[in-house]
Design brief:
The protein is built from 3 helices and 26 strands. It is mainly β.
Amino acid sequence: MNTVKIMPFIFFITLLQVPEAEVFCREKGETGSPALFSKPFIESRYKKNFITGNKKAEPDLFRVKAGTEALQISVYGKKKDGETSEFTSFKTGFFPFQDNRIMFNFFYGSIGFNGFASRMRNPPEKTTSVVYYPVIPTKSQFFSQGTASGKTNMAVDMLFGNWRVALYGDTKGCASSPSWASGGWTGKPVFLPSANLSVLFFGGKNILGKKNDDSWYHSYHRENESESLCAGSEISFKTKRFSASVMVSGTDGTLRPDGTMIRTDASLYGKHGRLSVFYSKTDRDYTALSGNRAKMLERAGFSPYIVFTFNRKKWTRFSAGSIFYKAMEKGVKEDSGDSESFYAGGYINAATLTSGGTFKLKKDMDSIRRNRLQIESSFKSAALMSRRLVFEVSTKTVFTGGNKIPEQNKTTGSVTFRSTIYRSIGIGAERLSEKGTSYTVSAFFTERISAGRLKTDLSCKISAHTDERKFSGNITVKTLLK
């Protein structure tokens, strides 16, 4: 077996050989650290997808998670029809103290990126959100597990109190793969203990692939594989009434001009909401750590958000938010000009303990491409039969180019009866109008089987379609032993 593929498992076995040091194995209350082997558990989940007709089913997914209060491992995998199972990602975490002041997480395989790791890897792009979420100091994880095939990425995320270090690379070889490192401090500054401050830095390189012979680039652009170096930093700050962040990044390309990127935001907070403004500007030749070139050169906008709770006993809540921004995008080809676009999105939500409804509106106007309007609504209620009967309905309509006839119209609804927290049965229906009209009718149920410390959750969904799928569905089995 390839050494690279079994490296994560060797790493985990090595961790298990750590001596039962006194600092990690004392009982709770003496040092604030949990016992290394206390509260062991094993959790597994397998989802089997099936389909008939001319389409292929989604791959079966499986996940195994095991560990103790201080040491955990998680393995993701999948299986396509007619193929053998494959492991897609591996994670191990080590948390020697209850307050998580020291955390160590190791990832291998398919890796996702969150928060700061995502912002530093990718240039600013257009969004289809209905509200803007400001950047604030946080100690949340940079990485997550993925299910993509054939990935050999490796990442480490370490937290020591307020200090953190993160590393990312590819085991295929640093000479031909992207890699980066980041680190910094997040906590309460001495000069203002009531606030939170985060100062993070990063640096790394990406590999820009070779262009095809029929590329629309002119001859002075690179034709061979080249390397681009990237470095930058982000500062974010938050008090009770105000938050702000600034991120600056620069690239030094071997066969292309240098580029810079800046993105910033600021927010004012009140008792019932916030008001945010944001701005980003990216050079035409900027290439982020992910290897993606900038598509949006500039973006500026604002976003208000409000929330009211009228009756705290019955929890009657109203919230609304919106986002407006103007952007400048690069031309699709070398000889096409840049284009301006304007985006507006918003939502309104009203909810109680048993019912809630949401309405969303998204409008994208472009000076070159067709305009796009998307309207969404949803409603859910569990107010009948002691909250055992649940009704859900949602709609989505998309108009393009100013047409009065929608390009897509989707309506879904379901009725579910819950006899217990873990036992339910229901039916659902869907109507989709998009290059033809198709209908789907579904039946589903969930159940929990308990046998001592072993808990098994079963769920099943079977659907009948009027399109080429005919029938589809999935069966999920989740077990927990603790």
